[in-house]
Sigma-54-dependent Fis family transcriptional regulator (Deminuibacter soli), 456 residues
Amino acid sequence: MKKLPANILVIDDDVDILVSARLLLKQYFASVTVCDSPKELNELLSRNDFDIIMLDMNYQKGVNTGKEGLYWLKHILSINPKYIVVLMTAYGEVELAVECLKAGATDFVLKPWNVEKLIATMTTAYKLKTSNTKLEKAEQVQEKIQKDMHRGFDFVMSEAGEMRELLATIRKVAPTDANILILGENGTGKQVVAREIHQLSERAGEVFMHVDLGSLSNQLFESELFGYAKGAFTDAREDRAGRFELCSGGTIFLDEIGNLPLHLQAKLLHVLQNRTVTRLGESKERSIDVRLLCATNMPLEEMVGRGEFREDLLYRINTVELRLPPLRNRKADIPVLVQHFLASYNTKYRKQLSVSKDAMAAILHYHWPGNVRELQHVIERAVIMAEGEEITEKDISIKQVQQTIKVPVDNLDLEEMEQLMIRKALDKHKGNISKAATELGLTRAALYRRMEKFNL
Ligand SMILES: Nc1ncnc2c1ncn2[C@@H]1O[C@H](COP(=O)(O)OP(=O)(O)OP(=O)(O)O)[C@@H](O)[C@H]1O
């Protein structure tokens, strides 16, 4: 028979009872700790994460009032009201047992016990513990999910051109449990890709937890990620699980990992190596089972060279590295993304707009410093502003199109100069190929060839 993964503590001053409880329970449950004095409770509870505590009612020879048991029951529940306590009472102590149930005990067993009844009681108590934990986790996770609800995280990517290989890699690595580091400029879609990986993994039915490390202060970083015990700091009014515990079974996405200060990098490394977390203000370690995805727009390898990022942490997080190219280098994605955003904003603003050829040409020739995020905003604004049936070039408010590109006079790299001049001409003429070609003294075909060469 498969043992239940329960961690049980049995407290009784009668050593014979402890020996037989241990022998019996070990056959059905993963871990059984025994102790002959409730005075050791504080120490035991601070070091271990017990699922069920089996507590005797009397600890002094000749005293059978059960008052001591009631006292220790209350003591345990004052440490954490969520503890599952099963009491051991003798025949004739029914009134006392009822009093204990009112005080918060989960159940009681009669001594001497009937083996089947004892195992059934302990199994039910363990199921109650796990469903309470799931409920607690669900409530806390719900809060985080609610925040994400209004955001659209549909993932679209062209199957053509530059992105084909990247898509293939995403599909290949997603179902594995490999740690993945996603690199790319701001707004290139690192978070969308992380969510897609989670969706394509075996953990899809579990939680996806996004943690923006860039927005957490040092103090918050530890309590948010690892949780805390009541009283660990001034505002810690109750025990709270951290994000790692909350998403156990699922995926954790550490965004902006490059912002993590060195001393916290060491803590994170410890968690990843041991697959356990210790809540602030506690000493016991709790196991976690999470898949790790990280993202950054910072050059982590250079940071390792400068001593700003731990090399051992880098190797732990980048089993697979995905580089999301900036939007300007993945032109095949632009029409797909435009249609995607157009469809969703048409629905949102109750319109049926399409994009005119001129507008699409301008979009294709812009260099999108803000990447997909900027494109999304531009399309939303255009949908709002457009008056006819089409989005025209004038609805596409790409301010930077008009900005002058400075040609560095000390740069003598001919290819780079050529690229800059072409971009400058295209910007000046808002993506109009004929006008840009005339200005550059090239035929349209020659300009197209160069644009292809430079991926413009
Ligand atoms: N491939 C994509 N398909 C659909 N939407 C996308 C895609 N890539 C990006 N987006 C949209 O662009 C916006 C920015 O994406 P996301 O937040 O994933 O980028 P990021 O690289 O994580 O940005 P930052 O580095 O600034 O946090 C989001 O609103 C997202 O929905």
User: Anything to note?
Assistant: Residues 400-405 have pLDDT under 50 and may be disordered.
